[in-house]
Amino acid sequence: MPFDDMDAAGILRYCNIVSPEPGDLIFMGDGGVISHIAIHKNTEGTNIHFIDSTTITGGVTERYYPIGSSKFISFGRLRIYK
Q1: Percentages helix, strand, coil for the chain, rounded to the nearest 5?
Q2: Is the full-model pTM beyond 0.90?
Q3: How far is it, in rounded angstroms, from Cα 25 to Cα 14?
Q4: Tens-digit pLDDT profile for the chain (82 aa)?
Q5: Strands, E, within the chain: which ranges?
Q6: How many CB atoms lie under 10 A from the CB of residue 15?
Q7: Rounded-to-integer distance, Cα 81 and Cα 42, Å
Q8: With 0-12 CB in 10 A as exposed, 13-18 as middle and 19+ as buried, what is 58?
Q9: Nearest by Cα to 43 from 16, 15, 72, 12
Q10: Which of 26, 39, 66, 75 could serve as 17's disulfide partner, Cβ 3.0–4.6 Å?
């Protein structure tokens, strides 16, 4: 199910990160539609490594895509308010 209302959850306001750091969120999907969120692990060479859970692997795994993959729509960082 696509995430139709990301702004209502307050997430899109923080999605202007160009180079993700470990722990950042990776918003993924096809055709510019966010349908999946992963956690950035590291960038190694020309690949972005991430941790996610998907039916493709049947559970939580580490995967990677090339930095320029069209699967990457945006990156975000959670803000913690005290």
Answers
A1: 5, 50, 45
A2: no
A3: 10
A4: 444 445 544 555 555 677 889 999 898 889 888 888 899 999 999 999 999 998 888 889 999 999 999 999 888 887 766 6
A5: 25-30, 33-44, 47-54, 59-66, 72-76
A6: 17
A7: 25
A8: exposed
A9: 72
A10: 75
